[in-house]
Amino acid sequence: MSLTGTAVALLQVVLTVGAAPLLIGIMRLIRARLEGRVGPPILQPWRDLRKLLGKQRMVSDNTGWVFSVAPLVLLASAALVAGIVPFLSTQSALDQVGDLFAVVYLLLLGTVFLSLAGLDTGTAFGGMGASRSMTITAIAEPTVLVAIFALSVSTGSSNLGAIVATTLAHPATAASPESLLAFAALAVVTIAETGRIPVDNPNTHLELTMIHEAMVLEYSGPDLALIELAAHLRLVVFLGLLSNLFIPWGIATTARPLELLAAAAAVAVKILALASVIAVVEVFTAKVRLFRVPELLAASFVLAFLAVTASFFLA
Amino acid sequence: MSETTFVQLLDLAAGLVLVISFASLWLRRLVTVTRMIAIQGVALAAVAAVIGFYEHESELVAVAVLVCVLRAYVLPALIRRAVLAGSEHREVESIINVPASLLAASALTLVAYAATRDVVALSSAPQVRAIPLGVSVVLIGMLMIVTRRKAVLQMMGVLMIDNGIALVMFLGTSGVPLVIELGVASDVLLAVFILQVLTNRIRNKFGDTDLDQLRALRD
Asked: Which of the listed residues A173, A236, B46, B77 has the most CB atoms within 10 Å of its CB?
């Protein structure tokens, strides 16, 4: 493991953790402006986190160890993925483990722990949120695997860095049917996994519709801060994965500081563009009924499936 | 047009035809499904146009224009009128639910790939490699006819089958004489006319176009 590689991985983690709440702030601001409100300042999510971190830790007597561990596992897995995914450079120290399966199951680990924590408290809402979250994850997770698998067929490797390098070397493959289909499938899954409209509403506290909020209802203080930060981080990780797998231009192939700086600017622009699209679309769409969510996810699975067949038979 | 751009554009257009047939299984509003059939017509015309431009065959480009007018405008407009005439139920009613029909359609796509393996092995041309897409559109059209209850949706299924056949025709022959395409076009137009009249008769008789009511004989 080279020193520069380690530095790149650490830099990725620090930058994404620092930028994640800002991105949420920007998305909230865009939504507010489009709805005709002034909106909170961009730094507001950071201020919320600071406020929560300064509070006393309150844990119910009826909870077990899962409840205390879950926020840490959620944040740690998201931060680890932020170090693995090639955001800045394909020369990351964690590139050897930068495998598609490792990334997907690390993200799944956090989701599962959060659901277990929701069940652990024994409240009705926690259990309801956990069961809903698992229903969505059970359909969304295979879609992620199949969609990235479609990309790895042409590369011959399931290593994320290798996939990105291949797309860089052959720019024409970025507009092939299989990558477009896989992009559409992954975009739907990103929305489902990060709990955005139309699958879940991140701003609601209306009991009957919430998924993510229902699971974290019993958390307060520093624990809630960790969970919020992890949720923000997961959004950045998913959007970064989406943008760099399909539009990898701008990523550094070495670990020189100047190139890394340019790559950071490029990935920031890409993530910001995707996030703005999501924010704008959210203003104009309504949340779908929970029973319609499997239809949406089945459609994205079919897109991923078509991507795989196309990459096997057409290419 | 270079070789790689041609392959890229052809694959995109042919892939769009297939994706649209999945979308029309997924959507619930009848008017939106009609719009999907129109977009499928545009994608089909794009396939013909791409092949025509690449091989410098002006006749095929003319066929593409004809296909675009007929399948993207005239036929969808006729079906749209039939949909709007029956204003009572505007939602798709299906025998199997949406995820099941999507999964069935993906299974049919695999069947199409498996069934056309020998055809694809005949040539390494990019047109021939895309033939399974046309066959799967035909199969998905049949699925639509089998599982949907409305007469209007069955009309759309017939159109989808025809779009699939036309796609296989463009890909397999690389250039159809204008006369043949004109014949096929008038055929399809006539069929849709007859189906529309039939749908209107069914609606006048029963007040609905739900074909389940036509199963049993009554005095």
From this structure: A236
Instruction: Report the predicted TM-score, pTM, of the whole model to 2 decimal places.
Output: 0.87
Nearest CA in chain A to B3: A172
- From the list A172, A294, A306, the residue facing B8 with the nearest CB is A172
Pairwise CA distance, residues B149 & B210, whole Å: 6
- Alpha-carbon distances of A235 from A17, A190, A273, A303, rounded to whole Å: 11, 8, 13, 22
Phi, psi of B94 (to 5 degrees): -130, 155
Residue pLDDT, tens place only, A214-269:
888 889 999 999 999 999 999 999 999 999 888 888 888 777 888 888 999 999 99
Which residues of chain B neighbour A302 with C-beta distances below 8 Å?
22, 102-103, 105-106
Give the orientation angle of helix B98-115 with respect to helix A293-313, to 10 degrees: 10
Does B110 contact A295 at a Cβ distance shorter than 8 Å?
Answer: no
The three-state secondary structure class of A79 is helix
Encode A170-199: b = buried (16+ Cβ within 10 Å), e = exposed.
Answer: eeebbebbbbbbbbbbbbbbbbbbbbbbbb
Q: What share of chain B is helix, strand, coil (3-state, %, to 5)?
A: 80, 5, 15
pLDDT at B175: 67
Select the residue from A305, A308, A312 to test the B interface by mutation, using most B Cβ atoms within 10 A.
Answer: A305
Query: A216, A224 in Cβ contact below 8 A?
Result: yes
**Residue keyed to tokens 């796609």:** B167
Give A69: exposed, middle or buried? Use CB within 10 Å, 0-12, 13-18, 19+.
middle
* Interface ipTM: 0.83
Amino acid residing at A265: A
Are A298 and B103 an interchain contact pair (Cβ–Cβ within 8 Å)? yes
- Tell me the DSSP string of A213-230: HHHTTT--HHHHHHHHHH
B210 by Cβ neighbours in 10 Å (0-12 / 13-18 / 19+) ranks as middle
Locate the chain B residue with the closest alpha carbon to A297: B99
In terms of DSSP H, where are the helices of chain A? 3-34, 44-53, 65-84, 100-120, 124-155, 160-169, 177-193, 212-215, 221-246, 257-284, 293-313
DSSP state of B210: B
**What residues in A contact B47, CB-CB < 8 Å?**
none
Do B150 and B24 contact (CB within 8 A), yes or no? no
Burial of A32 (0-12, 13-18, 19+ CB in 10 A): middle
Name the DSSP class of A127. H
Contact B28, B99 (CB under 8 A): no
